[in-house]
Amino acid sequence: MTTDTATLPERDLLRPLRYLWRVPLLLLHILLGILLCSLILSWNQHAVMENGREPFAHRMIRWWSTKLLRVFGMRSVRFGTPLADPVMFIANHTSWIDIELLHSQRAACFVAKAEIARWPLVGWMAATGGTIFHRRGNNHSLASVMQVMVERLHDGRSVAVFPEGGTGYNGVLKTFHARIFQAALDADVAVQPVALRFARGGRRVIDAGFREGESFMGNIVRLLGGAPMDAEVHFLTPVPASPEARRRMAELSRERIGAALEDRLE
Questions:
Q1: Residue 139 has what pLDDT?
Q2: Any bridge partners for residue 68, and if so which?
Q3: How many CA atoms lie within 13 A of 179 on its CB side?
Q4: Of 4, 78, 183, 220, which is most buried with the most CB atoms under 10 A?
Q5: Which of 124, 92, 122, 88 is nearest to 108 (CA)?
Q6: What is the pLDDT of residues 101-138, one digit of tens each?
Q7: Cβ distance 84 to 156 under 8 Å?
Q8: Measured between alpha carbons, how far is 99 from 94 in angstroms, rounded to an integer?
Q9: What's the whole-model pTM score?
């Protein structure tokens, strides 16, 4: 696998200039997000896709997420076709930007760590968008989360999860936890792997997510001044249901995502 952590010169002379216009745009976009959550999402949290048509609230989520990526200099690019709701999306995880990247193509209820719910503004916006919060390492919390996942899927909403159980670094795809796949089996919905990949000139950029030890705000500041890149969403072949082998479902999802993340050499 070929990866690229520095396709630009070591010293990026344009970085200070990007902050001059991206910071005001980000503040304005956050204000738009508050209005969107208050006036649309808070009143349409249970809207579902009907006959393959997205509800207005979902289209607004996609619009806002797409524009947020543009503020950070990222162009959202879709490969493949997402299944119609309800479906469980399984994706790799490198940072907070992964949620917005997938949301730029399909609105879904994400499973996220419970700490996010206490973050000022971010927690409220996430909850309004349908996020399901989970206390990591707590089996009782996981059981409750899976029950909510099944309920959302039965209601016609798609759910997106990061089965690595946390963010990875340096382009490494960690082991996928198999237990989370039980929710799809219980709800009798398809499982579709999704590879989230960042690239410049077709070559993968592995440090668009968190660097090891990097804080949430530190990552935002670094990305906000970064050079433009493509943010790719690869909707892959669904994984066959296997009630007797959740581990095989997890391994197959990981294999397909890993293959999609690799650079394609000419």
A1: 61
A2: none
A3: 7
A4: 183
A5: 88
A6: 999 999 898 887 777 777 777 777 777 777 888 776 66
A7: no
A8: 10
A9: 0.87
The confidence band for 45, taking pLDDT boundaries of 50, 70 and 90, is low
Q: What domains can you pick out in the chain, each with its CATH number?
A: 15-261 (3.40.1130)
**Greatest C-alpha distance within the chain:** 55
Tell me the sheet residues that pair with 239.
191
Q: Which amino acid is at 187?
A: A
Question: Reduced to 3 states, what is the DSSP secondary structure of residue 160?
Answer: strand
Reading the block at residue 130, the tokens are 């349908």
109: which strand partners? 159
Q: How many CB atoms lie within 10 A of CB 195?
A: 22
| Dist CA 239 CA 194 (whole Å) | 11
Q: pLDDT (tens digit, 9 = 90+) per residue, 131-150?
A: 888 776 666 677 888 898 99
Average pLDDT over residues 225-238: 96
Look at the alpha carbons of 118, 122, 124, 128 in this order and tell me if their dihedral is positive or negative: negative
Q: Name the residue with tokens 């797409």.
A: 66
Whether the CA torsion 176, 178, 179, 181 is positive or negative: it is: positive
- In sequence order, what are the residues at sequence separation of 6 or more whose Cβ sits closer than 8 angstroms to the Cβ of residue 167? 93, 94, 95, 209, 210
